Amino acid sequence: MIDFHAHVLPCIDDGPSSIEEALEILKMLKKQGVDKVVATPHYNDRIMDIEEFIFKRRKSYNELIEAIDIHNIPVPEIIVGAEVFFAYELILNDGLEKLCIGKTRCLLIEIPEGLWFDWICDLTDKLLDRNITPVIAHFERYAAAYKNLDRFEKIFEKNIYFQVNADSFLNKGFLRIIKKLDRQNAIHLIGSDAHNTKERSPKMDDAREKIIKKFGPDKWEYFNITAKKLLDIGD
Ligand SMILES: [Fe+2]
Predict the structure, then answer these.
(1) How confident is the model over 143-153, as pLDDT tens digits?
(2) End-to-end CA gap in the chain
(3) Which residue, 204, 171, 200, 177, is CA-closest to 190?
């Protein structure tokens, strides 16, 4: 099982505030059946430049790997990425590729709520022109703002991916929206979006159960196949 969106690197964003907490989240993910997790700390270009972020992320990752080695505990493999707050200036930044996931050219992007539709098409086109594939984080949050999804039609036609949060499958309101999105073939990836071990803990196992029950095992398999394809991982 691949978790495509999680805050597991310590002391870098609003995710785990210590190495110990990061280890606990990783242990929870492993127990839930996750064998690969994409670590996606928040990046906002208004707060720091890309080089500073990369430096901090590397430090956080190295400290976590050291702790994993010392404690010798089974945890999922960590693939480093970022959850990038979408801003127009950022698209023009030469260093944007450094924020892509692992060795891929996929970029997990977070859209500022409320500003969604008017410029998203234009921005995603600019990314695609740079040969960067956008993955929109927790797409159900934006879709929830609209009664019907007609206005998203142009977006659905683009070669981009939509990630849904695991715990949204466990919420009746979001589940209704996810079903609508599914009818448009607009859910491609699942992520825990875990931040801690308490109110924003990973719920990949419960989500898996729900997805299999409501959408069938093929849908669950599809999320994992899509993740493997994007991460360029064979079977
Ligand atoms: Fe997130």
Answers:
(1) 887 777 777 88
(2) 12
(3) 204
- Domains in the chain, please, with CATH? 2-230 (3.20.20.140)
Q: How far is the CA of 72 from the centre of ligand 1 (A)?
A: 27
Spatial distance between the Cα atoms of 201 and 20, rounded to a whole number of angstroms? 14
User: Which residues of the chain have a pLDDT value below 70?
Assistant: 114-118, 234-235
pLDDT of residue 142: 85
**The pLDDT of residue 118:** 65
CA–centroid distance, 58 to ligand 1, in Å, is: 18
**Upper half-sphere CA count for residue 65 (Cβ side, 13 Å):** 11
Q: Distances in Å between the alpha carbon of 231 and those of 33, 70, 177?
A: 18, 28, 27
